[in-house]
Amino acid sequence: MPRAATTSDAFNAIAEPQRRAILTLLKARERPVGYLASELGITQPGTSKHLRVLRDVGLVRVRQVGQRRLYGLEAQGLQPIHEWVGGFEQFWNESFDRLNEYVKELQREEQSDGGDG
Amino acid sequence: MPRAATTSDAFNAIAEPQRRAILTLLKARERPVGYLASELGITQPGTSKHLRVLRDVGLVRVRQVGQRRLYGLEAQGLQPIHEWVGGFEQFWNESFDRLNEYVKELQREEQSDGGDG
DNA sequence: GAAGTATATTCCCATATGGGAATACGTCAA
DNA sequence: TTGACGTATTCCCATATGGGAATATACTTC
CB within 8 A of B8, min separation 6: which ones? Predict the structure, then answer.
């Protein structure tokens, strides 16, 4: 089985650096494909393909303006990621109760282990 | 060019659901491979492979205890993700100044566009 | 309709993948 | 050492990938 499709969810979609760069660029405002392509330094078709993925997972929206297509941020799809990752915040912020217990438990096990080598 | 390696960074590593499940399981405490495998409902080698990826990107650590290897969370690697995604929070939280300006700008462009069809 | 601009899709390819199966490695017990 | 257990690695494979090149589609102006 290969890796899950990039379009299977936002986690997979934002794993690609260029797609993250696109989202960052869209923070300022809507942008046409050509602008994004030149900013990223990749081809127009390449940019369109990345935008296609972001669209499939609902991280951007498009609207037609004349002969251009303006892509805009649809950030709601990032919220689940933020929440999932946020669930680990307590573990990278030290000085937290559960972390203390955790460490104590480790030390207990280490004792029944031996010590230095 | 294929997709970037799953071991290239935390973004790629956590794109895989089973690996996220592993990290979630490790919140409670360190666990041996066998436990994780049975919880995930996948094989031991499969579990080891996922753990290898997580280890390569620094999201878990191992320590040998007897003949078992206890894997534990190393959540610091998730912090950059949290920060990157957090940079979009203002865009999924409506009622924000910049978002208001954004919308106004859109409406201006829409006017010079025409109207309904 | 024809020409021009902006974007999307298709075709091609080397490569990494996740799972299964088989096997190697490391530790413990006797 | 032998046997048993827990874990890691290797081999195999169908599949999705991101980029490049070529082409199709859409909109605008003439």
Answer: B57
Domains plus CATH for chain A? 10-78 (1.10.10.10), 87-111 (no CATH)
**pLDDT tens digit string along A71-91?**
999 999 999 999 999 999 999
Element (H, E) at A70: strand A68-73
- In B, minimum Cα distance to A31 occurs at B106
Residues ≥6 apart with Cβ < 8 Å to A34: A44, A68
The pLDDT score that the predictor gives to residue B115 is: 31
Quick one: pLDDT at residue A29?
95
- Interface check A52 vs B, CB under 8 A: no
User: What distance in Å separates the CA atoms of residue A82 and residue B82, rounded to the nearest whole number?
Assistant: 6
Find chain A residues with C-beta within 8 A of B5's C-beta.
none
